[in-house]
Amino acid sequence: MTAAVSLRGVSKRYRISPGRSSRLSEVLSFGKVKRSHEFWALQDVNLDVEPGTTLGIIGRNGAGKSTLLSIISGVLQPTTGEVEVKGRLTAIFGLGAGFNPLFTGRENAMLSGLILGIEHDEMLERFDAIEEFAELGEFMDQPIKTYSSGMRSRLGFAVAINVQPDVLVLDEALSAGDSAFKRKAIQRMYDLRESGTTVLFVSHSMGMVTRFCTDAVLLNKGRILTSGSPEEVADRYQEMVAKSQEKEGARTSERDAQLDYEIEHEEEEDTPTTSGAPATGRTTNTRWVVGGAEILGLELLDEVGQPVDKLSSGGRLTVRVRLRYDEAMEESILGITLRSEGAGLEVFSTDTTLEGDPLGRKDAGEHPTVDFTFAVPLGSGTYNVDASLTQPHTDGSDVARTQDAASFEITEEGAISPVRGLVQLPTEVEIHGLEGLQEGPGRPA
Amino acid sequence: MSTYTFKGKKSFAGEVLDSLATFYRKRWLLKYFVQRQITRSYKRSYLGLAWTILSPLIWVFFLTIIFSEVIGIRFRVVQSDPTLNFGLFLYCGLLPFMAFSEALNKGLNSIRSNSGLVQKVVFPVELLPFTNAVASLIDKLFGVGALLFIVFVLEHRLHWQVLLLPLIMVVQLLFILGLTYMMAVIGTYVPDMGEVMRPFIRGTFFITPILWPPERLPENLRWIEDYNPLSYLVEAYRGMILEGTLPGGLATLYFSLFSVALFVVGFALFIRLKHGFADQL
Is residue B87 part of a domain? Predict the structure, then answer.
């Protein structure tokens, strides 16, 4: 079988000039003066994507993911190399490209479809499907300046996804709309995949990549670092990120900043939009939220059940989470996470299943409250608490979660002796006689 | 179902032909784009498309007041025909000029202002300057309609030569297209040149016999008129709409040849450089 998308030795070069005036002197000297340096956004990329594959493209910001997608979709021309695409390609990173706020949803949908390269007759045929999918109701005939941003992206998405492409290119575009729309969009993506559409997909969500993709490639600094099964590639990515975080320590060189600036369009596309986020209001889209239940509130209580935001180390804390189920669920897992703000680390997390208290079947409309009570033998500092609700036997995407829902402070007041380090571990000290050799740590390091 | 490949460089001639075929394949897109450009400015207003006719009427009204009644008396002496209102004379000359200057000014920005289309989707960019040129010409066609209406009301007759005006407009379209494509390239690659071009475009207004009758030119400055393709258009419009005369055959031939050459050069330049647009934005 021949590849649906095939790239041979594809490279893309950008010129980075120190300033506008140096670019001018270059232009005026017809390239004799060279003030700019070259930056290879992609270098010698070889890639074959079989028809029907769902390929996840992962990598850090600036790794060249968006450049790669732009080249595959034909928006950018490679500096060297060949690109071959068989069949109709639809790219969903230009959602709503060419939308004009003064024209109605219907007019814009038609225009958007034509821009995406769909024939006029075909658009007319598919219009009902698009209208139904976008769920805009009577707003379809209103100028889209009256639309919310969620409605706008729904319309753009509805057009792009209803045209039966052979190759679909997605750039973190699924964050459009509320959770119900999102589920529908994902369903539609599965349908497309089943019907043999090749999907190329950029994401920072490893959960999404491992769940949705059949293959993955990891890009780093414009080169394909590794390719293979999504799990392997995702592991490699996480390894890479962890390593560079160690190394980095908040150091960003001037040149990096420049690169970031020059390829900012890539940066933009990598940033998940928060428009139309589900109603908890605090959720972010860095991971998948599928909806179906909501976390109504998260409270921190002390031993007598009073709200608390300051604790002494070793005190007992109750994290109370109130939930509401919008759909019946056979089983769900509520987890909480403690994060040290100063160290930026996850200190502790647990969930209902881990603690042996499964939530059990919940019907739509139920709103249980769950208390987690534990001692906090932590060093002084501020800690954030978040909760997330997941369902077992899925990909690990969240039903609902919070972001910076609550925080408390550990103070040294009232503590017998302050905790040195992050956490007080229960420790026993034994001193062995003979040569006065001391074993075991005196205090946790 | 389409398959596409980028294999190094395509032959240049093949690419130009491809682009020309695009205009046919994308005719619906083109239609919506032109429509959008024309209706955009009227979309917010209550009267909507009626403005395409009303605004020329208001133009003529004010030009007539200012030039015929306030300072126009001097010109009337020059114009031997007393029925010829100078406001009409002026407006008739303004029409081809405005089609020209609007298309060029929009052309300078046509790629940059549509960066979303250029960078995010596979879009035939050659449609953008085309849209500008066609839309501004169609917009002026409404102006011609309004002008004919006024002439008919005032003189109770129209000249048959008007029927040949569409032929001139086809050539005029080529003329404008060639320049608009050039402006699009210039405005995208050298944004500063855009700022230089604007005063030039405006300046052509003064070296074209729009405000002043060509008879006023001293003999040693005649070449300004002779070598200015815009003055050919202005004279042709006036002749066919107001005076019932046809432009000279030789002048028409020269203008046609010049326009075709301009179009070929402008379009070829655009096609040659269009692949770099996405990187320039």
Answer: yes
Q: Which domains, and CATH codes, for chain A?
A: 5-88+164-269 (3.40.50.300), 293-411 (2.70.50.60)
Please check whether residue B139 lies inside any domain of the structure.
yes
Q: How far apart are CA B204 and CA B198, in angstroms?
A: 10
- Whether A45 and chain B come into contact, CB under 8 Å, resolves to no
Give A-chain residues touching B48 at CB under 8 angstroms. Answer: none
Q: Is A62 on the interface with B (CB under 8 A)?
A: no
Q: Is A289 helix (H, G, I), strand (E, B) or coil?
A: strand
Confirm if B38 and B139 have CB atoms less than 8 A apart: yes
The answer to whether A98 contacts B28, with C-beta atoms less than 8 Å apart, is no
Quick count: other Cβ atoms within 10 Å of Cβ A28?
10
Phi-psi region of A300 (alpha: psi -120 to 50; beta: other; left: phi over 0): beta
Report CB contact under 8 Å: A103, B279.
no
Q: Do A91 and B43 touch (CB under 8 A)?
A: no
What is the full per-residue pLDDT of chain A (445 aa) written as tens digits? 578 888 888 888 887 766 656 556 666 666 566 666 778 888 888 888 888 888 888 888 878 888 888 888 888 888 888 888 888 787 776 566 667 777 888 888 888 888 877 888 888 888 888 888 888 888 888 888 888 877 887 888 888 777 778 888 877 655 555 667 777 777 787 888 888 888 888 877 777 788 778 899 998 888 888 888 888 888 888 888 877 766 655 444 444 544 544 443 333 333 333 333 333 333 333 345 677 788 888 888 888 888 888 888 888 889 999 888 888 888 888 999 888 877 777 888 888 888 888 888 888 888 888 999 988 888 888 888 989 888 877 666 778 888 778 888 888 766 666 777 778 888 888 887 765 555 445 454 4
Task: Identify which of A112, A115, A116 has the alpha carbon closest to the alpha carbon of residue A104.
Answer: A112
The residue count for chain B:
281
Question: Distance (Å) from the C-alpha of residue A247 to the closest C-alpha of chain B?
Answer: 33
* Interface touch A74/B5, C-beta < 8 Å: no
Identify whether B25 is part of a domain.
no
Establish if B12 belongs to a structural domain. Answer: no
Choose, out of A6, A75, A268, the residue to mutate when testing the contact with B (most B CBs < 10 Å). Answer: A75
Query: Token match 């490209």: residue?
Result: A97
What is the number of domains present in chain B? 1
Q: Which residue of A has its CA nearest to B42?
A: A102
**What residues of A are in contact with residue B7 (Cβ under 8 Å)?**
82
> Does A140 reach chain B within 8 Å, measured CB to CB?
no
Reading the block at residue B108, the tokens are 């300078």
A6 touching chain B per CB within 8 A: no
Range of the domain at B217: 49-280
